[in-house]
Amino acid sequence: MSKEHCFYCFDALVAYFELRPVAEPTFENEEYPLFVTWNTSKNGDMTDLVLRGCIGNFSAMPLHSGLKEYALTSAFKDGRFPPILKKEIPSLTCHVSLLVNFEKGENYLDWEAGTHGIWIEFRDTNGRKRTATYLPEVAKEQKWTKEKAIESLLRKGGFRGTITKDVLDGIILTRYQSQKAGMTYAEYLAFR
């Protein structure tokens, strides 16, 4: 994991707006499940970040195509936010998370905030299977208890009913870790 991954994501976004090809990556084309996260920062650094888009994939994919695809998908297709505009680029930061060490949890509380990302499977009130995930840093950044994180994750995944003990006990939890790097726009320009 390196800043080169973040540079490549920034370059994919900038190239999209400049209508030019993306620079060829110099890093290995290994396969990983991955997420690309865009934040805005009022200071142009890694503090005071506001989420702007975060989408990834749990299927291992080649880094060259995967990072390019998810850099643009998270910038333009995260349904929680309007698409990123060209004028926002100087205020952006990019984080890349390569997901590793997947383990089945014994129950919905079998994970550590700040260490593990969590992916849950559950049934909604109509019996449909749903899934949702939070990357390892989310619960800690939000200062959530494990219970609050699971409740929020159920809601994120579309559960609209009352969260009962049976609902919680029916959760299938997978925990994972991530190798993460981040880069500001200023760092991207210097890296260029």
UniProtKB/TrEMBL annotation:
Domain AMMECR1: 1-192
Pfam families: AMMECR1
Coiled-coil region list: none
Cross-referenced PANTHER family: AMME SYNDROME CANDIDATE GENE 1 PROTEIN, AMMECR1 HOMOLOG
Protein name in the entry: DUF51 family protein
Organism field: Lobosporangium transversale
